[in-house]
Amino acid sequence: MTPDLKPLRTQLKRRRAALSFWQRQQHARRLAQYLNHHPYLRSAQAIGIYWPVRGEADPRLIRHYLKPYQKIYLPVLAQRPIATLQWIPWTPHTRFNNNRFNIPEPLQGHYRSLFAAQLDCVLVPLLGFGTQGQRLGMGGGFYDRSFALLNRRPRPLKPHLIGIGYEFQRVPGLNSAPWDVALNSLVTERGIRYFR
Question: In terms of pTM, does the model score above 0.90?
């Protein structure tokens, strides 16, 4: 049975915020090393990641391990037709602006944005995760709406969703709603887990 989500989210946010800068940096280095050996990430060309805020696990060091043909994309909030995510390339020349949640987003400029189905692999932030790949997010539904295509049967092969987090974010008994999109795999400081 899923615990009450509001106090659970508050508890997990507090625990994440309590991590020191040094702990976050150590964690980011370990994540990048594990991600460098993730088979789906190694073969991906279009890779979505996120800009970490408020103590989220930091996936950005993976850029130092990528090959020249691999491109990183960052999410921007799209308002039409529904609130979903679009993806803009992250380059050395990318300029940023904070969105309404105070999260840095790349300015589109002359770049063409991608939609979820065009990405090969996406590193996904989370507040909590279950033992079967369930993901507990912040509650806005942006990732679930953006990757709803993965709830089709049979499940499309891409994008491959890799949850990025801390081991303490594991929530035993976490259930999912019909609209929740499950992770394909997860990376924490203890390594890589694969789900069904």
Answer: yes
